[in-house]
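Exercise 7. Given the components listed, write out the predicted structure of the assembled complex. Treat all entries as one system.
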Amino acid sequence: GAGVSQSPSNKVTEKGKDVELRCDPISGHTALYWYRQSLGQGLEFLIYFQGNSAPDKSGLPSDRFSAERTGGSVSTLTIQRTQQEDSAVYLCASSLAWGGRATDTQYFGPGTRLTVL
Amino acid sequence: AQKITQTQPGMFVQEKEAVTLDCTYDTSDQSYGLFWYKQPSSGEMIFLIYQGSYDEQNATEGRYSLNFQKARKSANLVISASQLGDSAMYFCAMTGGSYIPTFGRGTSLIVHP
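Answer.
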């Protein structure tokens, strides 16, 4: 079956512009995560969606970042007034559930490489 | 709070040899899961192996095995018969009471021919 897809794969933008990153999770996966990975670094959690529950936005670095998930499926991460420090790879992952079980296994998309000039 | 520690920033191994990547964890949860992911230079995170805290046997998936020592809170990844394509970053992660997974900082593995 289809894995997690993300678009665009690469995005170059000018400082101050808004960008939208899209994630299509695996069908049937109720949990969806966004992460940010700067060059040579580990994963930084940004936001978590679970079913129809309110998202956990605790990882968003500033109010310029927002995300939504429509119909429990596709998610969009929006960065307003981009800054050069926003340059990173943005990874999306989905899983069946959570709770310390195998169903927590996250399947990642290929990522979107964002470059802010 | 959960914590994952990967103390090896870089590892080198000869092709066809076995290699162990270290991972220690800390959690107050009784039920938790441990995961290893591979990230090649292409950037995609690939799930390798899972170990549940109540699993009595070490997990194995092909050439990958997880050496789970609960008392020592370690979950080392063992790759047998290394291949050139194994060269990548490897991340240890855990889930448990928090739905936000905790990832280690990663270990870079280079396989020499």
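Discussion: Chain B touches chain A through 27 residues (CB under 8 Å). Chain B has no helices and twelve strands.
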